[in-house]
Amino acid sequence: MRSPLPGGRLTMAGPSLSMARHRVASLIAVACAVFGGAAMVTATAVVGETGVTSHLAPDRLADAEILVAAPQRHPVAEDPDIPFPERQTLPADLAADLASVPGVAGAAADLTFTARLAGTAIEGHSWDTAALFGAPTPAPGAGEVVLDAETADAAGLHPGDPIALTTAVGTTEFTVSAVADLPGQGLYTDAATALGLAGHGAGQADLIAVDVDGDADTVAADVRSALSGTGFEVVTGDARGDAEILAGGTARSELIELSIALAATIVLLVGFITGGAISVAVAGQRRDLALLRAVGATPRQVRRLVASQATIVAAAGLVPGIGLGYLLAERFTAFLAGSGMMPEGLPVALTPASGLIAAALLLLTVQLAARIAAMRTSRLPATAAVAESRVEPLKSGRVRTVIGLLVIAMAITQALMPLVVPGEAAFASAATATLTAVIGLALAGPALVKIAVRLTTRKSGANTAAPAWLAANNGRAYARRTAGAVAVLALAVGLTVTQVSAQSTFTQTAAAEIAEGAMADATVTGGISAEELAALGNEDGVDAAVGVIHTDVLRLYETAGDEAADPLPALAFSPGIDQVADLDLEAGDLANLTGDTVALDAATARLWGAGVGDRIDLALADGTRVDAEVAATYGRGFGFGTVILAADLVTGHAGPRFYDAALATGDAAAVSAWAAGIPGLTVEAGATVPYTATGMTPDQWLNVMVTLVLCGYVMLGAANSLVAATARRRGEFAGLRAAGATPRQVRAMMRRETVFLCALAIGAGLAVSVLPMTLLSLVFLGEPWPQGPLWVIPAVAALTALIANAAIAIPTRKALRTPLTALAAAAE
Fold first, then answer.
1. pLDDT in tens, 591-600
2. Residue 514 burial by Cβ neighbours in a 10 Å radius (0-12, 13-18, 19+)
3. What sequence ranges are listed for the domain ABC3 transporter permease C-terminal (predicted)?
4. pTM for the full model?
């Protein structure tokens, strides 16, 4: 009885390196897969780390070493907290309480409001914080403002000049009392005026700024003790910028969400491609592994050897891949900043942490993939392992095939979901169906390939040309090899078609609903006060004027005993929405959309189980919780959004605010004439709210970029695997040459195999993507074909065929140029 080889880890290093030296071609594919995967994972990790650790620098309140704020996020169990895009307030008299804390030199309540000055949007602030840090001018009195020097120069204003300041509550006359060099930009008023213009409740403030006399950390600890149990937050250091500038905290949260969404897809693809490359490498070493089993290696030792070898090779691709990932992250974040999806000035977190995360994740993926790939060979008896080292098993695993067919059935069910599930859930289900189907194809692929070969060669007979006969029998004998290549190429085809078509279908659906539902003859934008909206509605020739506010809400509900929250963009309309928009009303009455009421997209209402008269829990953009009544449901949810609020639901809780736009019906010329007399307002013909995209939006550009990178990676992985798989067929080529086949006949055989492979891959890729995309288009647009540029399908099919042909033809020609004796020796 043979004794097993020594079980130490070091005993596997020698055989691993020795086997790797003789199988370089197949292992290059593993290194390339890890290289590309490391680059993408590192870039994604940098984006996520930036969202977690980076902060905007404080600006106007930079001298305040401590800021006290109300919590600006909604806590979610087991998920990242959701930031509020609008500020929660806190009691202004908290400043007096904090002033008595040891080490606090002074504290002041801060208020901020938005205003229009000579047609330009600016920020206004309460004077108390400027005075706290030694402002060089006297405080403004009632009816006075202090301007910072830059704002005054831009407006051509000097001390003593009168100004008309328009805020959400209307237009008020002020006098410029002074112009001073102050931190930040904008104007300052006395605290009472700022409170009225900000629209907060009595005695409320945005922040408390604290001036410190002593060690900031010690004072901050004492301030936290003084505020214990209040729920207010004490912010120091770099985090002060997020407290002062809410957009910074919101953007950071969006970066985290983006990185999580990208990571889910990227990790799946990296595992798929890396696992496929390792499977090809292991297949080329089955004879060596079988011989190790024959001389006494245990199954565990064989798997450890394969895993060690794959890890060594992966390490070669990790370092340059991580380096490329940091370069990609810089370009990616620059694009996000340029498109407004990330605030300018937010530092990019280029620390070693992202590279370490990528390395750990990739090495774990390689270890798992290697052990799974070596599982069958390591478990076979030594004699059976040697017998299978030259050929694949004749029968595909029954369990694997059944699981694969079940997964494909699941994908078909997902593809059919648009027929029964309306709304955005249908898009998510249809898009996911492609990835699900490819996974099923990878599992059941060998059995399906054998069936396809049998069907395509059924009519062949004795007159079949030798290359065609050999190609057909190779496809049947090496169904696993063929199925692996088909799955990867089909993934590239399906992913591209799905992304382009789903995005196009969604955009066209939304545009069609907006075109059918928008009834306004003109749209006024630029920040419109309630006073101006009323004046527009009373203008001669104007039939109706309805204000629109862009906002966000959280839908609150319980799941598994915990409160969950879904953030949703929303539009809030002042009374009269039915005069400027046809929402395709299904139930209720939009005239009832006042106070604490909302209207819901009908598909969403059914999904939530809410009808007219029911109440739903919401949190407004500033965190205010409301128990809102459903006043109506409507059909045009893609164009007008999931939730529509009554404007006074927003202003009643958050205080007065500018309308982002006003939709007007009647004489468009009268609207233009009215707006011409008010600096800062612009008029466009028709309804531009909701906005109908006429070009690529930043989100769409981002989707295109990510899709191109992912598809490029998949194509690269497919090409590397095909090159490695073809290179390891040198023994087969040598046998054919020894049997009398000419190099020309071998190349002809490989061309036929390539045609068969491409036909299966392109057909499978189109089958798993065209079906769900066609159903989406049929349900939402009434057109029984996928949406988007039609040239995408032939282009991706042609690119797939080109890559597959090059990846097979080049190593084939190289092998056939080798003398027969050398080719046979290399195969061994």
1. 899 888 999 9
2. buried
3. 261-381, 710-819
4. 0.80
